Amino acid sequence: MKPAEVTAPAAAAERSASVRAVVGLLVLFELTSGFLQGGIAPLLPEIGRELGIPDAQLSWVLSAQLLAAAVSVPVLGRLGDLHGHRRVLRGALGCVAAGTLLVAFAPSWPVLLAGRVLMGPLAALLPLEIALVRDRLPVDAARSAIARLVGSLALGTLLGGVVMGAVQEATGDVRTTLLVPAVLAVACVPVSFLTVPESARATGGRLDWPGAALLSLTMVLLLSGISAAQDAGRLSGGVLGLLLLAVLLGGVWTAVELRTPEPLVDVRALTDRRVAPFFLGAFAFGVVYFGSQSPEATFLAADPERTGYGFGLSALSISLVALPAAVTAVIASSLTARIAGRLGYAAAVALAFVLIGVSFLVTALLHEALWQVAAAKVLAGLGTGVALGAIPTVIAEGSDRSRTGVTTALYNNVKTLGGAVAGGVMASLLAASVSGGRGDGTPTESGYVAVWLLCAGLAFGAAAVTATATARKR
């Protein structure tokens, strides 16, 4: 037997063993990612008080990062395919670490938003890690590793809210609290240089720079238009002009992507009749899931003696109110396969949206007692868990096998875009209630009710669309 015939399998086994050993480091990155994502919402009222930011504008803390993620996820994913996923992963971790430090020490509102924009690559960590383990591990081992990464992200989200709330309760200083995730993010950068292997295979081609530039400019115009609408409290001519320009530029970007041999985003996948309804559902889910976080936190933190609503909760109390719903979502997500085994994945998606819609409708009608809000959130957690587990699966199974990876990545982009748009829309609704309310920058109760009713309507609409798609398939 020739030496090459012996060394090649041995080298492959050694590479697989090294990746199995380094999965623990990737798990650390996902725990940190979840910690950063889950820990910010309970702190929003404290951040607003520290920097003098009205409650109606705090949604931008979340939406700024999501808008940056909508661009950075496809760009970094493609760069990883071209130049190595480990190299791009290290750069993404460095960018996130810089963003968390900027957020912790931000002296003003614009600097805080700049830090959140730098944290946009946070959403690209998991796709890069999945691509890395799929490239270097056998199929069964890769599936196991991906499951551990997704589970770590969910666990980190749970820990983030509780730990950050506890630190805020103990120190009473929001900047000290924000340093906790910053230290974790900074520590991940040198760890990524230890034993993380590089991708074994690199694809040919190039990055779609025109597509990336047009997508970035479209997001900036969209952000500017929604922000201007919030500041003005109405849709003025200038605001409508910005939004119309964003729509037109988005159309140009779509046309460019359709004509590009190697597009940044596979727009054609959105028009596939088998998965298009579920992409609409993913967009609605992003709006409801991300858009409701900031209003719920500020509502729970509001002083009832001054505003006439709310419960005056601290960051830790807000985290504890959300904890049962978060645990329910994790459990429901793990049981999605069993639920879908009885109903079918598409029907499970429709049911999930119904549960989410009912929860927001109940909250809009009943929010005088804390137990009412907490119970409704548990119902939303049940629907959220099933949706998180079922939507990507039904999209993957409805797409062509040759485009499964691209289609599922597009699902993440659509969901993130929905969340980015939601932040501005929810902020505008709350700002509109301020302009017609008490005049001290605090939204009225009707503003929050409008947010919950909008979320309920979107969820019920998504349920109807996905249910119609299910019936048509049958």
Task: Offer a quick outline of the entry.
With 474 residues, the chain is mainly α.
Helix/strand layout:
Layout: H1 3-39, H2 44-51, H3 59-83, H4 85-105, H5 109-118, H6 125-136, H7 139-171, H8 174-191, H9 209-232, H10 237-259, H11 276-291, H12 293-301, H13 304-307, H14 315-334, H15 336-343, H16 345-365, H17 370-398, H18 404-435, H19 445-473
The value of Rg in angstroms is 22 Å
Q: Topology as H/E string?
A: HHHHHHHHHHHHHHHHHHH
Strand % is under 5%
Count of discrete alpha- or pi-helical segments spanning 4 or more residues:
19
Helix content: over 70%
| pLDDT < 50 stretches | 1-17
Largest sheet: none
- Oligomerization status of the protein chains: single chain
Instruction: Choose one word for the global shape.
Output: globular
Mean pLDDT, to the nearest integer, reads 80
Please identify the structural class as seen in this structure: mainly alpha
Distance linking N and C termini: 56 Å
The count of β-strands is 0
Describe this structure as you would to a colleague.
With 474 residues, the chain is mainly alpha-helical. 80% of the residues lie in helices and 0% in strands. The chain has helices at 3-39, 44-51, 59-83, 85-105, 109-118, 125-136, 139-171, 174-191, 209-232, 237-259, 276-291, 293-301, 304-307, 315-334, 336-343, 345-365, 370-398, 404-435, 445-473. Helix 3 runs antiparallel to helix 4, helix 4 (85-105) runs antiparallel to helix 6 (125-136) and helix 6 runs antiparallel to helix 7. The longest helix has 37 residues, at 3-39. Mean pLDDT is 80; it is low at 1-17.
